[in-house]
Specification:
Layout (H helix, E strand, L loop, with lengths): L2 H18 L12 E4 L6 E2 L2 E2 L1 E2 L8 E6 L5 E6 L2 E3 L19 E2 L5 E4 L2 H36 L1 E2 L2 E2 L4 H25 L5 H28 L10 H19 L18 H28 L4 H9 L18 H13 L3 H21 L2 H12 L5 E4 L16 E4 L3 E12 L6 E7 L9 E7 L5 E6 L10 E12 L3 E2 L5 H34 L3 H29 L5 H28 L8 H10 L9 H21 L1
Parallel strand pairs: 1-5, 12-15
Antiparallel strand pairs: 1-4, 2-3, 5-6, 6-9, 7-8, 10-11, 13-14, 14-18, 15-16, 16-19, 17-18
Helix pairs in contact: 1-2, 2-3, 2-4, 2-5, 2-15, 3-4, 3-12, 3-15, 4-5, 4-12, 6-8, 8-9, 8-11, 9-10, 9-11, 11-12, 11-13, 12-13, 13-14, 13-15
């Protein structure tokens, strides 16, 4: 059964549900369209509304305001005009059947409760999304099999880097859509669920159009032959998409566009509200001054520590909050929604990188000496991993050495682009303790910054995130006591990767929240609805990405492996925030906004650019993820 036929089946079942909500004498005909009559720009026959569902026959259902308030479900078989006229001119048939709107002079009404409307409406939308994503998943498999079976002069097609990356990008977005669909399907029907189902339908239609185009391209000439399932999907989606897109005209229930889709516990809501209040009162008023000075003052860190925001991952016996990943997600999102990117960078390094490493792998002595002071903000740490020759994720090429001298190490080398280093009291330094052993020869050492031989060579002037200091550290014959070794000798890289994988999810969540901040602020500045349509659609995509980030964060909190998902989200969201900032700038300039009106966006562009570089550049993440995806598709094809 093809895509269009399955959509027709969904419509018929939807029509039957509508019929069962009405008195028998009000029902005439075999099928129904569903028109949600909320205030809109279009007016047909005295009724204002937008197409919501697509029929397979002539009966029409309308939801309209009742004279005494509330809403009424109207049914009428004497349709006089195609519903497609709501968005375009012309009558007649279309790919999914005859669409029509009843003359309000012939309407008969039956009360419809919000709960019943929500149940029917959400079920229909989620069914449509499931059909679309399910068909797209099968098309992806067909495309993978085609690429596995075909060879070029340089090898099997699926092994070509460009081809592999394109296919994995398709796979990633299908993963995001499936995750968001599962999130909504698991909830009880409510007006909010219906609104979020509309949002997800918009995101699905946008990304599936991209997906269909890429799959046709990857199939070459075979992708244009109708008997190819890939071509058939492209054809059916092309026919159905305009009508389905009209269905998702925008949620009737207000949506909190700072935190869409993801449900939170009462404890999480309370924590986030308290943190938001703290930011408003203690940080936002002074943050521009921090940006201008290029540093967060020490009292700023102490204030954060005093309120418990630097030690959430630290056990309570060392002065921490005994929490972790979930609270870090809330903190990261809230800081980005407040446009506090420099603060986000510095606090993320402390709260979600250094503190977890020390908590999980440090000796009792190291914990006693450093954890309480770091959690309280009295001691500022940094993590020194990157070197000038270790671009991207190639940390196994590190050249900083630590020579064993009995009761101490002697450290020599340079570390570049190290967050917080100009202000740091202690550095956690990844060093090579075994020559020529690659990853197995790397050890993590805790190095006090006041030791002889430690030097801040340069404090970098960066494009953005000015409040977060970044520097170049040089170690020259620095003597580090053996008791300052973190964990086991030769296992340092494992400890760093353990926390960096989680940090990638946080950076992805930060990128999505920053995209929402930019989109929300731009939409508030735009006077015309039409100018804002593309931005509103991007906001729907951001909502779907946010679901996937939170699902991965909760899995990390449950100690489940997330390395592949983290790489996917890191590159998807890092690229997405740049696309959103570009779209915001285009919309504001097209709206003839004054230069002063977009100064905030120019800062956002400089801040947001680094999100595709932190903890693994997008190119490295794409390559890693695409290799994992292609291996999985090969395995599935051979099964």
């Amino acid at each position: 059964m093809g895509l269009l036929q399955r959509l027709r089946t969904a419509n018929a079942e939807f029509a039957m549900q509508l019929r069962h909500t009405c008195l028998p004498e009000t029902v005439r005909g075999d099928a129904a369209a569903f028109v949600d009559l909320r205030p809109a720009d279009d007016d047909v026959g005295g009724l204002t509304g937008a197409l919501f569902g697509i029929p397979d026959g002539g009966l029409l259902a309308c939801v309209a305001p009742a004279p005494d308030g509330g809403r009424v479900l109207y049914l009428d078989a004497a349709a006089y005009r195609s519903a497609i006229a709501l968005r375009s001119s012309g009558d007649g048939d279309n790919a999914l059947g005859q669409l029509s709107i009843a003359d309000d002079a012939n309407l008969v009404g039956q009360p419809l409760t919000d709960a019943e409307l929500s149940r029917i409406r959400a079920g229909y939308l989620l069914r449509v999304i499931a059909e679309l994503v399910g068909e797209a998943t099968e098309v992806k498999r067909q495309t993978a099999r085609f690429l596995i079976d075909r060879k070029s002069t340089t090898g099997v097609l699926i092994d070509l880097p460009d081809v592999r990356t394109q296919l994995s990008h398709v796979h990633a977005w299908l993963d995001v859509l499936e995750a968001a669909h599962a999130e909504l399907t698991g909830r009880p029907a409510s007006p909010r669920t219906c609104a979020e189902a509309e949002i997800l339908l918009v995101a699905a239609l946008r990304k599936l159009q991209m997906f269909a185009n890429q799959c046709v391209q990857l199939n070459g000439g075979w992708g244009y032959i109708e008997r190819n399932p890939v071509a058939a999907f492209y054809r059916d989606l092309n026919a159905a998409r305009p009508l389905l897109r009209i269905s998702a005209t925008g949620p009737g229930t207000p949506i909190d566009w700072t935190q869409p889709f993801v449900a939170a516990t009462d404890d999480e809501h309370a924590f986030r509200a308290t943190f938001a209040e703290y930011l408003h009162e203690r940080v936002t008023p002074v943050f521009d001054a921090w940006e201008a000075s290029g540093r967060i003052p020490r009292e700023g860190f102490e204030e954060l520590g005093k309120h418990g925001y630097l030690g959430q991952a630290c056990p309570r016996e060392w002065g921490g909050g005994g929490a972790g990943m979930i609270r870090h997600m809330h903190m990261t999102e809230q800081m980005m929604l407040e446009n506090l990117f420099g603060l986000t960078v510095s606090t993320m390094l402390i709260a979600n990188t250094v503190v977890p490493i020390l908590t999980r792998y440090g000796s009792e002595d190291l914990k006693d000496r450093f954890l309480p002071a770091i959690a309280a903000g009295r001691t500022i740490p940094c993590l020194a991993v990157t070197e000038s020759g270790s671009a991207g994720a190639m940390v196994t090429t590190l050249a900083t050495t630590a020579d064993d001298r009995g009761d101490h190490w002697v450290v020599n080398g340079d570390k570049h682009y190290i967050t917080n280093s100009p202000a740091a009291d202690v550095a956690f330094v990844l060093t090579r303790t075994t020559r020529g052993a690659d990853a197995q020869g790397l050890t993590l050492l805790c190095v006090s910054m006041d030791l002889p031989g430690v030097e801040i060579v340069e404090k970098y002037a960066k494009l953005g995130a000015h409040a977060s200091e970044t520097g170049h550290i040089r170690f020259t014959d620095v003597k580090v006591p053996k008791q300052n070794t973190v964990g086991y000798v030769g296992s340092g890289l494992l400890y760093v990767v353990d926390v960096i994988v989680e940090e990638r999810v946080l950076i992805a969540a930060a990128a999505v929240s920053y995209a929402l901040y930019c989109l929300n602020r731009t939409l508030a500045q735009l006077p015309a609805r039409n100018d804002a349509a593309a931005l509103a659609d991007l906001r729907c995509e951001a909502a779907a990405l946010r679901v996937r980030c939170w699902q991965t964060a909760r899995r990390a909190a449950a100690h489940t492996s997330i390395s592949t998902d983290a790489a996917m989200l890191k590159y998807l969201c890092g690229d997405f925030v740049r696309d959103c900032i570009d779209a915001c700038e285009d919309a504001l300039l097209a709206g003839r906004r004054a230069p002063g009106d977009i100064a905030w966006l120019q800062r956002a562009r400089l801040d947001g650019r680094v999100m595709s570089l932190f903890t693994g550049a997008s190119g490295v993440m794409k390559d890693y993820y695409s290799r994992r995806v292609s291996a999985g598709l090969r395995l599935h094809a051979s099964a």
